[in-house]
Design brief:
Elements: H1 6-11, H2 26-32, H3 43-53, H4 66-73, H5 77-95, H6 101-121, H7 127-132, E1 138-143, E2 146-151, E3 160-164, E4 172-184, H8 186-189, E5 195-196, E6 215-216, E7 221-233, H9 239-249, H10 256-287, H11 292-306, H12 311-327, E8 331-333, H13 338-341, E9 347-350, E10 357-368, E11 372-375, E12 386-388, H14 398-409, E13 414-418, E14 421-425, H15 428-439, H16 444-447, E15 453-457, E16 465-471, E17 482-488, H17 490-495, E18 497-502, E19 505-508, H18 511-526, E20 530-539, H19 548-551, E21 555-567, H20 569-580, E22 584-588, H21 593-603, E23 612-614, H22 615-618, H23 623-629, E24 635-637, H24 641-653, E25 658-662, H25 668-673, E26 676-680, H26 686-690, E27 694-696, H27 701-741, H28 751-761, H29 763-769, H30 795-824, H31 829-848, H32 865-883, H33 885-891, H34 898-934
Parallel strand pairs: 9-22, 9-25, 18-21, 22-24, 23-24, 25-26, 26-27
Antiparallel strand pairs: 1-2, 1-3, 3-7, 4-5, 4-6, 4-7, 8-27, 10-11, 10-21, 11-12, 13-14, 15-16, 16-17, 17-20, 18-19, 20-21
Length: 935
Amino acid sequence: MSFPTTSSLASATFPNTAQPWHTQPSSQALELLQSDPEQGLPESQITQRQQYYGANELKETGGRSPLQILWEQFTNIMLVMLIAVAVVSAVLDLKNGTFPKDAIAIFLIVILNGILGYLQESRAEKALAALKNLSSPKVRVIRNGKTEEISAKDLVPGDIMLLEAGVSIAADGRLLEAQNLQVKESALTGEAEGVNKQAEVILNEDAPLGDRINLVFQGTEVIQGRAKVLVCKTGMDTEIGHIAAMLQSVESEPTPLQQRMSQLGNVLVSSSLILVAIVVIGGVLRTGWGLFEQLLEVSLSMAVAVVPEGLPAVVTVTLAIGTQRMVRRNALIRKLPAVETLGSVTTICSDKTGTLTQNKMVVQQVQTGCQSFQVTGEGYAPIGEFIPDEERYKTEYQDVQLLLRACVLCNDALLQEKQGSWEIIGDPTEGALLSLAGKAGIYQEALTPSLPRVGEIPFSSERKRMSVVVEGVMLPEQEPPYTMFTKGSPELILERCTHVINGDRPQPLTSEERENILFQNDQMAMQGLRVLGFACRAIEEIPSLESEEIAEQQLIWLGLVGMLDAPRKEVKGAVLRCREAGIRAIMITGDHQLTAQAIAYDLGIAQPGDQILTGRELERFNQSELEEKVEQVSVYARVSPEHKLRIVRALQNRGKFVAMTGDGVNDAPALKQADIGIAMGITGTDVSKEASDMILLDDNFATIVAATEEGRVVYSNIRRFIKYILGSNIGEVLVIAASPLLGLGGVPLSPLQILWMNLVTDGLPALALAMEPAEPNVMKRPPFSPRESIFARGLGLYMVRIGIIFAILTIGLMVWAYNHAQASGDPQRWKTMVFTTLCLAQMGHALAVRSDNRLTIQLNPMSNPYVLGAITLTTLLQLLLIYFAPLRNFFGTHWLSFTELAICFGFSALMFVWIEIEKIIVNAFFVSQKTSSKL
């Protein structure tokens, strides 16, 4: 094969594929792409076009390498400070001829935290890989006048592609010929129902993607029929390619928790450096440069004390616990920070089909010539009741029986029971008709053998109806041996009817009855029902396809059937819970606006009179105009992938924190853009799952609300143990800083002892606090702002206040212990007393911090038994450091007498007493405030 040179490519003229192909007749499309429907492209053009347009595959932009992700973990400001501390500590130890165990311990903590961060962030983005898997590996084309099978990646614009049932479409194209072609486009549009395609139609330029019935798209699947297609777009120019480009253009923003932890690190490190500078400068001014090395040791201990080394591990474990609780509620978390992020959600944008609804068409109403029924039941199970509007009519009457038999006979679907669950094979609409008949005791397997199908006139988008001919007599006093049943668009079928079944016999159809039937049809449609009309007639012979127009005349009207993808029962309550929790629910669907409106009204997402925005209307708004609209609109219908992305961005620009659900490929960019992307576990595509943060295992909107509740609990618990950990850290820093200023000689805590406190004494109770159950009002309040500071709502003031109390109590003990140790013959014993008091005081803090306003005695200790277990275990471990010789030698502690240990316990208990007294004072203040406001 000879390839064209660069110069020949430059001089060649290649067709412009950026055309609105659905607006052009197929002949013009062939002319623009310089192709022939019978011969296809010649070999020379194929080679040149492959060079010019490139391979028919999706291109991936570069992401972060694993090494880059790992390196970024060690650029965290707190870890950088710890690394610096470890280096200085190692230098000092080696200079003094001692083993650098402090430095080694710090380095190990740094490495552990780096690995934890890496494991959280190193999940490679697989959404594009899942998109690539949608491409068909092989495709049949016409080239050089011959039909051949080629690799999908070798397709070029201008190729003639042949489609048949079961084929995955490998490129976007304009239909040239189509025979009964139906394509499943749910991966692209989100709608489960197959689309009937038609080659001859020419559409307006603003026709929505789901309505472009003269085009086929890459990644969709042929359900039935066959077609000849002119390939118009390949690779990144296809609709799937546009989605891939949008997916890669969406940048991942840090989650609220990640932003808060970064803010926390910056505040801690800057505060630590300021305090270190004060201590060092103050010490030098007071004692001169002679004690500079001792002051440097104090600075190192302060730097280690201020960094909560155990916090990343505690946060990670807390989020992991949250994921387990969410799995039990059918929500699978893919990205750990999403657990906490859910608690900040202010807006949930939900798809309709399968999430708010059952994703199963269910007949709701039946209307014959003189009877009207409401039908109960769920899903496809043939279990339910016919509730007549007037009691004197029954389903045994001839008109109802004929209508239900028409539902079974004029049907290509199958209804089957598998392991106690009813499923359909075929079109969901036809499955709903079989279920309807089953509720009246008319079953397909019993009826069809006695009335075999002998002919049919298939459905087409032009005719909007289908007819079947069965061998058998169905009408009263019928002489012809065949009966034809017709179903489809009520208006079109009614035009062909001359009679109506009224009770037991056909009667002439009057103009008043016609108007009444059309009125009933409109009423059903306004309720969001999909309405089908049914008719029949007796015929002498099986009609040919050429005589279909003649055969489908003088029909006898049987009735209307209205069906709906019914809302899930639990969703209405979940929407109400959202409203109570200050969360707004929004419906974004590709379905018709009347259907969306009916479901939204039923569920309480929208109220009568609220505006409903369609994709076509949305396109007229620029982004700033859309941002104004999103505050008022709660229902969006007939939307495309770009619309979903714009809606999410508009909400985010208005300060909303958005959770977005989706199941199709079309949803992936919006899922990735949203603060929380939620994919469907049952109906979701691999692409949507890989772009998401969370997967609904049951595809249920109510599960999102349950997961949001868990997210709020996790965030509350994270704040609880942050104030627990940092309160003591501030106390440690102040105690260490006070030691040289008081002239006590030496640092009361070594870096190794501080690491023990930060990892074990702080870490174990902090993990127990992460198991604290939900507060009673957790879903009765608005969400806290995702942009609020980690120190918001009094947390910063609490940590400083408690840190100061810690320091005052411990400094008081430290001064007494120092003087006591000097007289006891073991001058270093005071350091162990300070170390022990700080550790034990944290145990009282852990007990008291479980609730902000309830006294510990008012809490059920068994509601979180892990706290009692952690306190007991930590206390025993602390005693081992004093009384177990190997640990005592390693950590540099000293033996304490019973009296000295009792004094440590006594000073520690004062911390618990202080916090409980604070609660009493605060509660009394609020009670007095409420009393005065009532007066």
